[in-house]
Amino acid sequence: xxxxxxxxxxxxxxxxxxxxxxxxxxxxxxxxxxxxxxxxxxxxxxxxxxxxxxxxxxxxxxxxxxxxxxxxxxxxxxxxxxxxxxxxxxxxxxxxxxxxxxxxxxxxxxxxxxxxxxxxxxxxxxxxxxxxxxxxxxxxxxxxxxxxxxxxxxxxxxxxxxxxxxxxxxxxxxxxxxxxxxxxxxxxxxxxxxxxxxxxxxxxxxxxxxxxxxxxxxxxxxxxxxxxxxxxxxxxxxxxxxxxxxxxxxxxxxxxxxxxxxxxxxxxxxxxxxxxxxxxxxxxxxxxxxxxxxxxxxxxxxxxxxxxxxxxxxxxxxxxxxxxxxxxxxxxxxxxxxxxxxxxxxxxxxxxxxxxxxxxxxxxxxxxxxxxxxxxxxxxxxxxxxxxxxxxxxxxxxxxxxxxxxxxxxxxxxxxxxxxxxxxxxxxxxxxxxxxxxxxxxxxxxxxxxxxxxxxxxxxxxxxxxxxxxxxxxxxxx
Length: 478
Known about the structure:
Layout: H1 2-26, E1 32-35, H2 42-48, E2 54-62, E3 65-67, E4 72-82, E5 89-93, E6 99-101, E7 104-106, E8 113-118, E9 124-126, E10 129-131, E11 138-143, E12 149-151, E13 154-156, E14 168-173, E15 179-181, E16 184-186, E17 190-195, E18 202-204, E19 207-209, E20 220-225, E21 232-234, E22 237-239, E23 245-250, E24 258-260, E25 263-265, E26 271-273, E27 290-291, E28 300-301, E29 307-308, E30 318-321, E31 326-328, E32 336-343, E33 348-356, E34 359-366, E35 371-377, E36 382-390, H3 391-398, E37 402-406, E38 413-418, E39 422-430, E40 433-440, H4 441-468, H5 471-475
Parallel strand pairs: 1-2, 2-4, 3-5, 4-6, 4-7, 5-8, 6-9, 7-10, 8-11, 9-12, 10-13, 11-14, 12-15, 13-16, 14-17, 15-18, 16-19, 17-20, 18-21, 19-22, 20-23, 21-24, 22-25, 23-26, 25-27
Antiparallel strand pairs: 28-29, 30-31, 32-33, 33-36, 34-35, 35-40, 36-39, 37-40, 38-39
């Protein structure tokens, strides 16, 4: 009896093992599909794909698509998806975890949408070029979508066809925990709009410019937040809004949104807010936003701006709404330039900000040489920079000991502050075009030490040479 039980157990184990090997053998791994070589159209490739496959699309013009599987779609060359003014939606994404990159999208139907993410999660729409050409109502539309990344896209001329008032470059409705980062949106009625309980989103480092003309019928916005809360709006550049536009508008039921380190430049009307719950600045020394129409000195610093010394923050607050007593308590003295870097043994994204009245170019962080460098340019007068660096970088590169050089010289004035997360370095210089380099402090300290050591080595060698060559003393002059 025991033998029979053992035999049956052995057979069961072998059967289970065979089934495992068989399952492993037939399990499909993600594969690469090429359009039009493997399939003539993008839709045919999607229909044939398994979840996880990567569909590469060669240059050419293709029909609109529905992405209803978890696949990656990557344009290799100039791949155009053209609605020919016959489709309400040119690219319709309904599956989760879709990646959609490098395409040119154009010509939806009258009042149509270029890219529609419908109730999907964890999708990535990156580095696409979207052309509204006057017909388009929405460039990228997120409907009840979450955890999606809309990054590095260019969206132009989204002016709504026959429904101008509702035209949006990027529109979120009922969509939360999304990342709207580093997009360029030009000549769109509302460049970015968060509506209908779109909460907890990050809107960061976008360039937004509404149409450059006036209208007595319509109002355009760089950023619109309506009936949405707890969003973070930071690092955006919103410029050249006309008298018919607001750089940013928050409706009465937009609440508890954090708005800081944005640049509001040359706008006739900067901001419209209709309640007092939104926050327009981070604490000192991080600061608020740059308002190009705000004139204030910077002679003081500190949480109450009553300590001697400049800090890159205006001494006077900026009034956003006088009747509601809404202010930016720490307006910046210059635009905030933000640079993303990779740092750490397992590199992670970090962000370094440079607040300055100079133009900033050529930013670099060299972890081998342990330097951060960039160029500053200004026509005349006194220039300043405040460099906000994550403390993990300051500790990792310089062990918290660093030196600022402007054209290899000490700045005219330099000071710093440190919080738990960030180190703030402020310095001044005379304007022209100059190179700023932040280096480890020991580099400058080593110079005299190395000179002394080299002198000792040379002297020791000469003395040793004389001892081994006694006739040299006879040849020396008295």
